[in-house]
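Technical annex B. To support the medicinal chemistry partners, we prepared a structural model of the target in complex with iron/sulfur cluster, based solely on the information shown next.
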Amino acid sequence: MNIADSEEMAAHLLARGYMPTENLDEADLALINTCTVRDHAEHRALSFLGRLRKWKRENPKRIIIFAGCAAQRLGEKLKKTFPYLDLVSGAKEIDRFAELLDNSALFIPSGTQENKPQSSITGYVTIMRGCDFECSYCIVPSVRGPVQCLPSAEILKNAAQKAAQGYKEIVLLGQTVNAWKEEGKTFADLLNEVSSIEGVERVRFVSPHPIFITNDFLKAVENNPKIARHIHLPVQSGSTKVLQEMKRGYSREILLEKLDALKKRGFAISTDIIVGFPTETEADFQETLSLVERVHFSAAYCFKYSPRQGTPAAEMTLFPEKILEERLDILLNKVKGLAESAYRAQLGKPVQILMETPNKGRTSDNFWAQTQKEYPIGSVVNTEVVSVEDTLLLTRD
Ligand code: 5AD
Ligand code: SF4
């Protein structure tokens, strides 16, 4: 989502004559797009902003824009700590970013720059913003606001535009992407419509919520090979009690049902897990470990619980950092080999590769694969896995 938001804001800067650069020293403007989901993310953004003090002093004409979720949370008070900051643009204001730029008294060069030639086969299309859940640890609903679904007509137009530009894989984006709906249309319908756009070879989506893994969705998947067989489905915990206290809206049993249904349809599943939610007991933690053992995720991103001001969980008593660290270590050890074993399990299987370089690409279930022959970038190669090296599949083609 942040990549897509950054692209959207960058497009407005390109339209006003700016060009991207890798080199801060030659830049006239710095746009920092931020995350606040954990304290650490916000901290990194703020310390980068702090380092820009010197950059701005070297040339006071330089412009600094602080955008995204941390900007939304901290707002105008940022200017007190960082008086050299020119513009704050919160995550809720992304639709108004162009207007904000034009209304600010900032020096904006004239003219337009062409969008850089694409360097990837993947195009991002935002289909919804915000979140209607109230997970007790999560700051997203307060910084992003309630769900706003984009109309399907606009989504299909954006996706068709990407396809016409040569993007072969469309990634649909939203905080709870599979909650997308419109009168008379479900998320499953949308997946089918996007995948039938000319030029689209594969459709992915990030990030879904387990609750919306419906029969309707599973049926769409069965009938549509262009829907990628990989899902990043954050489970957060394996304990029904903790899930309840997190207000996730599902139990361990419901979760396992959904995960099994996905596995049965050939999905590789990656996930997010939070360790050390304030009420997590040793027994709860063991439930999470046993879930990881049972499900064989292809990857698991593990986070130490981080209290976020204003969320219900932030009022609960934390337990000692030492236990938190210990649990994270144990979990990280458990998930360390997941990717390698998921790759090993692909041996002998038929795969469909979307080529990202002349001899490498990703399979539908999101494994990195290398072909023997060379193929055009963006083409689809149907072949079979003959050997596996760490996290690379080698094919027969
Ligand atoms: N502390 C730790 N991790 C969090 N996440 C969201 N909020 C918090 C928090 N307060 C994690 C969840 C989510 C991912 C994007 O960040 O696992 O899926
Ligand atoms: Fe946060 Fe829960 Fe919404 Fe995900 S579903 S963004 S974790 S409140």
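Notes passed to the chemistry partners:
The pocket of 5'-deoxyadenosine (ligand 1) is lined by residues 37-38, 137-138, 234, 236, 272, 274, 303, 305-306, 308 (CB under 6 Å).
The mean pLDDT is 95.
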